Amino acid sequence: MTRTPREGQSARTTVSLAALRRRVRVALGQEPGDCLLRGGQVVNVFTGHVQPADVVISDGWIAGVGMYEWTAHEMIDLQGRAVIPGLIDSHMHLESTLLTPAELARLIVPHGTTATISDSHEVGKVLGVPGIELLIEASESLPFDPFFVSSSCVPAASWEHAGAVLGPAEVRSLLAHPRVLGLAEMMDVPAILRGDAGALEKVRAALECGHAADGHAPAMSGRDLMAYISTGIRSDHESGAVEEARAKAEWGMLVQVREGSIARNLDALMPLLVARELGDDWTLVTDDILPVDLRERGHLDALLRRVVAAGVPPAVAVRHASLTPARHYGLTDRGAVAPGYRADLVVMDDLRDFRSHLVVKNGQVVAREGRFVADLATRPIPCVNTIHLAPLDESAFRLRLSSASCPVIRIQPGVLVTRSEKRHVSRVELQWSWEAAQDVLLIASIERHKAMGCVGLGLVAGFGLQRPGALGSSVAHDSHNLIITGTNPTDMLACARALAECGGGFVVVSEGEVRARLPLPLAGLLSLESTETVCRQLGEVEKAARALGCTVPCPFGVLSFLALSVIPELRIADQGLWDVVAQQFVSL
Amino acid sequence: MTRTPREGQSARTTVSLAALRRRVRVALGQEPGDCLLRGGQVVNVFTGHVQPADVVISDGWIAGVGMYEWTAHEMIDLQGRAVIPGLIDSHMHLESTLLTPAELARLIVPHGTTATISDSHEVGKVLGVPGIELLIEASESLPFDPFFVSSSCVPAASWEHAGAVLGPAEVRSLLAHPRVLGLAEMMDVPAILRGDAGALEKVRAALECGHAADGHAPAMSGRDLMAYISTGIRSDHESGAVEEARAKAEWGMLVQVREGSIARNLDALMPLLVARELGDDWTLVTDDILPVDLRERGHLDALLRRVVAAGVPPAVAVRHASLTPARHYGLTDRGAVAPGYRADLVVMDDLRDFRSHLVVKNGQVVAREGRFVADLATRPIPCVNTIHLAPLDESAFRLRLSSASCPVIRIQPGVLVTRSEKRHVSRVELQWSWEAAQDVLLIASIERHKAMGCVGLGLVAGFGLQRPGALGSSVAHDSHNLIITGTNPTDMLACARALAECGGGFVVVSEGEVRARLPLPLAGLLSLESTETVCRQLGEVEKAARALGCTVPCPFGVLSFLALSVIPELRIADQGLWDVVAQQFVSL
C-alpha cells in the first residue's frame, strides 16, 4: 500500500508554502479566496456563540471568519443559515455499515460527516493487517477523512477461531500509518487486569507514539475501572447509565456517547449532557450502525438534533461532535470554523433540525441539499472468497441434550447484553426439537476461516420464528465465523452452503430454499454494491425473516452479536456455548 | 548532545512493560505501591471537585486515586491537605532567570512547578543551535521537566547584528528533539503578514510535526490578527487588555496570561478569568522572570493565589495551570491527579495560600515545606567568553545632535512598550550633554558577537540618575549586544570594558570605577552561580544603581528591553535608533 498521505488525510498538517502565503493574503483581503460563504451564522465552538460572519476559504483552508471585505472566485449566499464545523464520528466500525468506504462517503457526507475514526477489526479478524490496509487504501482520496485506530483485540477471544492474529508487532506496524490515530478499543479487560503482556504491549505501543488508547469498559466501575484507566486508556463508548458515564469521566475518560443501530445509549445518558456534568469530555459516536439507519435517520446530525432538542445549547452540542474529538485524537487541523482550520464545514438550515444545506470538505462543496455531489474516483477493490468450510452435513446441526432443562441464550431488546436463561425445551430421542410456541431456536457457530470443521451448538430464545427455516450470517462478532440460527438441520445446512457460495453475507432459507440473500463478498463482511442495493437486499432478507415469523427488529444485527464473547452473559462460539461471566464453556 | 530522552523528559510516554503491569497490580491492591499519599483532598481537574482521596504511586506514575485499601513501601499522611497536579509554565525564557537549569530547579520546584516550556532564543541569538542544545543537555535528569520550543526569531530583527541565525533548517533540527514541543513565539508579525517565506516555513515545520506554533501578537486585533492566526499559530502571551485577550480567545488561541518581572498582565485580565469568559483556553505563564521574584514571590503558586483570591474556583484555577497547558502542548502524560498520569503532584497546605507542603516529581518527593530535597547530579557546563568587541574609545559615546529638540526613548513603568518623546535636551558644541534635572541619559548598543565595531547611540528618559555613572548589560533583547546607559563617555567605556572582562553580565560604573557587577559568563546571559549568589549580586548592582539616583525598580530588566525592537515605539539597536512603528532608523 502507499504510505504517502493525500493532502487532508493525515493527522498532521501538510500544506505548501505557497498555499500558506496565499492564505495570509486572502485573509488580509489582498487577493481573492477560492470561495466566500456570505451571510451565514457561524457557530463558534470556542466561545459558544453563534454570530453573523462570512467565511473565506483558500486552498482548502479557512483564511478568515468575520465581517470583513473579502472577495473570492466563488460566492455562496447562505441567507442566514448556520455554519458549523464538519462532524467527526470518533468511534465506528466501517464494517457495520456493510459498505465500501466510497459508498459510505455517498451516504454520510451529505449528513455533514467529514471525518470518521474507524476500528476495522472485523476485516482484521478475517484478513489480518493486509485486510485493514486494504480498507485504508480503499479510503484514500474520498471526500471525507476516514481515519483508523489499530485494532487491539484480534482475535477477540482465545476460545474462538478467527482468521488472523494481530499481536503487538502488527499493532505497531498499523500505528505507523499516517491515518492511524491510536489504539482501538481494548476490549480484553480481563487481560489488562491480569497484566497480560500482549494486551499491555499494545497499549504501550500507542502511548509511545503519543497516540490515544481507546477503551471498552462496559459496566466497569470502582477499582477495576481505575486499574484499567491507570494503563493510559482514556476513552470509552460503553456507558449505558448515568452513574457509569460519570465514573468514567471523573478520571478524565472521553465519554463517547454511543447511539448505533443496536446499542443505543443516548437517551440514558442525555440527562448528563443536559446538566453539563461531563465537562468537556464527551462526544457522540455510532459504533455499529447499519446503512439503512444512516440513510433513514442520518448520522451525527440526527444525534445533534436530539441532543439540542433535549436542551443542550446548539454550539455546545456542535463542539462535542467536532472540536472535542479532534483534540482528543490530536487532529489539530480541524474541529472549528476558525481561521487556520481546515475548511471542513457544514451549512445547516438551522440549529434545531440540523438539515444540511451544503457540506464543504477541504474547501470543496461535496454535498448540496442532502445530495452527494463530489466526484468519486473509486478503484476496484481486490476481493477473494474468505468462506472456507470443512465438509458439512445435517448431523452437524443435531444438538444432543443431556437434560430437557438447559441454559438458553435470551436476547434482550436494544442492548448487546444477553441473559443466560434456564429453559425446559422439547427433545426427541435426546435431541433438541423445535416447537414454535417455545420460541427457542438452534444456534450454530461454524468455523469458516481455515476449514477446521469446528461447529458449536446452543439454543437461543427470542427470535420468534413460527415457520421452519434458518437465518445465517458471515458477520458474527468477533471472529466472524458463520452464525446460523434455525428450526431444523436441513435449512441450517442449506443456509451454510448458500453463505459459502456467495462469499459470505446474510441469508434466509426456508424449506431447503434460499428465500433472500445479501452477499458480502469482501471478507464476508462488506458489500461491493451501492447503498441502494445493500439497503434493498437488507430489506429483502429482513422481510424473508419476518415471513418466517421473526419478531426481532434487526434480526441480522442481533444474530451477529450472539457470538460476541466479550459481553455478558451467554454466547455461542465455534467451540461451543460460552459463559462470559464464568469465562468457560457450558456443556448441554 | 544525547538524543535519548531520560524517562519522564519526553513528550511521549515511555514506560516499561513491567512497570505498566505492576501499576495495574498496585491499582488493584494486589501488591504494594511505592508511595501512598493518605488522607488528602484531591483536586479533580476534570470534574472541578475537591474530594477526599488517597493517591497510590507506582514506578513514578499514579496507579490509583480514591478511597480504596492500598499499601505502599512509603506512607505519607497528608492530614487533609490539598493535592494538585504539578504546575506547568508553558511560556518562559530560562535565560531571564539568569540561572542554569539545575539552579532553576532548586528555585521553582519547591513552588510546585514540575514542567516548563522554554524558548531559549536568548542563548540561540548568541550561540545558535549549539547554544540551545547546550541548555537542553544541561537540563537533562533534573527533578522537573524542562521542555523547549524551537526559537522562531533568531535574530529577532534584521536591523540588529546578532551572534547566530536560525533559519528553517535549524528550526526543523531542533523540532526533532524529543523535548522540543513546538515552534516558539513567532514575534516577527510583519514577516508573517507579508508572507515571508522564512517565517512561514518555520510555522509549517512545526505544524507538519503535529506540534504547536506559539504566537506573539501584542496589541493585534481585527484582520491582521485573523491573518496571523490563519497560519496555524494558536497561542499568545501578549494580551494586556480584556478586549485583546477576548479577541484572541474567540478564534481558539490559548491565552497565556503573563505575569513576569517586568511585563504583568494578570490584574488587567483577571476580570475575564473570574467571569469564565475564556472558556478552556487560558493558562498562566511568566515569560521573563528574575530569580529574585521567583525567590520572593514564587512561581505559578503565587499566580494561583491571586487568581483564587480574585474569585476563580481553586479547581478551575489549578486546571488552567496544569491540564490546559499539558493538553495544548500534547503532554498527554500529565496535568491531572488521576490514574494513568505521571506522578507529578503538589501537596498544598490549602487552596487559598497555595503554600506547598510536598512536591512529588515522577513519584519522588523533591521538595518539602518549600525546601528543595532532591539530589542534583549537575554536570559542569562548558562556557566560553562570548563578548567580542572591536577596539572602543570614549569617542564612541559622544552623541552629536543636529537639533536640541530630538526624539527620546521614554520608559514606561510596568510595561514593555516605550514611548517616543520629543524632548529639548542640553548640547555642548553640538554634542549631547547630561543634566540631572532633565532625566535623560545616553544609551548605546554595542555589537559584541563578531567585533564588528557597530555602536548605536540614542537618548533615554526615565532612569532618574542624579550622579555621574553608567549601567551596562550584555542582556539586551533581542540580539544581546551590550547595552549601556549613562551620563558620560568615560563611565560608559569603563562599563563596556568591565562587561567584556567578565564575559558579560550587569555592571554599574561610577567615576571610572566598577561599583558592582553580576557576571553572566554563559553566553553573557546566564550565571553559573547559585540562586543565593545571583540574587545577592543582583541586589548589589541594583543598590549601586540606586546610589547613582536611579529610580526604576528593576533597572537591568528595563535596560535589557530597551533594544527589543519588536515592541513599539522607539528602541536602540547597534546600528542606531529604531522607530518600531515606522520600521526605520531615526536620525538625530
Protein architecture, described:
Two copies of one chain form a homodimer. Mean pLDDT of chain A is 94; it is low at 1-8. Chain A is elongated. In chain A, strands 1, 2, 3, 4, 5, 14, 15, 16 and 17 form a nine-stranded mixed beta sheet that branches. In chain A, strands 19-18-23-22-25-24-26-27 form an eight-stranded mixed beta sheet, sandwiched between helices. The first copy, chain A, is built from 16 helices and 30 strands. With 588 residues, the first copy, chain A, is α/β, with parallel strands linked by helices. The interface between A and B is large, with 65 and 65 residues.
Write out key terms for the chains shown.
homodimer, 588 residues, alpha/beta, 9-stranded mixed sheet, 16 helices, 26% helix, elongated, disordered N terminus
Q: How would the blueprint of this fold be written?
A:
The structure is a homodimer of 588-residue chains.
Chain A lengths: L16 H11 L5 E11 L6 E9 L2 E6 L5 E6 L4 E4 L1 E6 L8 H8 L4 E7 L1 H18 L6 E6 L17 H8 L4 E7 L2 H5 L3 H12 L3 E4 L6 H8 L5 E2 L5 H9 L3 E5 L7 H9 L7 E4 L5 H6 L3 H10 L4 H7 L2 H6 L16 E4 L7 E6 L2 E5 L2 E2 L32 E6 L8 E6 L2 E2 L2 E2 L7 E7 L8 E7 L8 E4 L8 E5 L2 H13 L3 E6 L2 E7 L11 H17 L7 H7 L8 E4 L2 E4 L4 E3 L2
Parallel strand pairs in A: 1-4, 1-5, 6-7, 7-8, 8-9, 9-10, 11-12, 12-13, 18-23
Antiparallel strand pairs in A: 1-2, 2-3, 5-14, 14-15, 15-16, 16-17, 18-19, 20-21, 22-23, 22-25, 24-25, 24-26, 26-27, 28-29, 29-30
Helix pairs in contact in A: 4-6
